[in-house]
Write a structure and sequence with these properties.
By secondary structure, this protein is α+β, with helices and mostly antiparallel strands. Helix content is about 50%, strand content about 5%. The two termini are about 25 Å apart.
Length: about 200
């Protein structure tokens, strides 16, 4: 498989999950600024949406959207328990978290990152992200991960978006449960390897 990624972008989430899965994969750098690969290939010719992540399967099929990719990867290696079995309430909880992170946190972060957005809009977005993260902090009370004691693909996505906080000008030091989640998430095998591969950890 090939994972098209950009360092530190939301593609970090499936990158972590792929490393957790133990499945073989190749990283392909796709610049979100130039929309080109390192060899000059137009990334739009590969993914018309123009953004990462994109997972190219062994048979040539391509799957986009992080929440879909991480669940696909998890289902390839059920023994790794990266996501609960399909049809269980626990699986729907994972999907609930993936959708919440995508629509309520990730998209608001995108507003702040967008240089074309006026400062008033960015301030509103920062407030929304802080409000949502405060709620997540409450949900993590007494838990190591979003579902409890065990890591799931939703945790990789949460880690990724919370990792943007310093770049967004957000101070989450007062959110003790979330801060603990970010630091102890390093205990999962996939995170440090992914961060190093993307040049985000020395």
């Amino acid at each position: 498989m090939k994972l098209y990624f950009s360092p530190g972008a939301c593609s970090l989430s499936p990158h972590i999950v792929l490393r957790e899965s133990g499945l073989p994969f190749e990283l392909v750098l796709a610049s979100t600024k130039t929309h080109q690969l390192s060899d000059g290939t137009d990334y739009y010719s590969i993914n018309p949406k123009g953004y990462v992540p994109l997972l190219e399967l062994d048979d040539g099929q391509r799957l986009s959207e992080g929440p879909a990719i991480v669940q696909y990867v998890a289902d390839q290696v059920p023994a790794r328990a990266l996501a609960p079995p399909n049809g269980t309430m626990a699986r729907y909880r994972v999907q609930e978290w993936l959708n919440f992170i995508s629509s309520e946190i990730h998209k608001s972060c995108g507003v702040v990152f967008n240089p074309a957005m006026p400062e008033e809009a960015k301030a509103l977005a920062r407030g929304r992200v802080t409000q949502r993260l405060t709620w997540v902090d409450q949900q993590l009370q007494g838990k190591s991960f979003l579902l409890g004691a065990d890591f799931s693909v939703a945790d990789a996505y949460l880690f990724t978006v919370v990792n943007w906080a310093p770049h967004l000008g957000l101070d989450i030091s007062g959110l003790k449960n979330l801060a603990a989640f970010q630091s102890t998430h390093g205990g999962t095998a996939g995170r440090p390897g992914a961060l190093k591969a993307e040049g985000l950890l020395k």
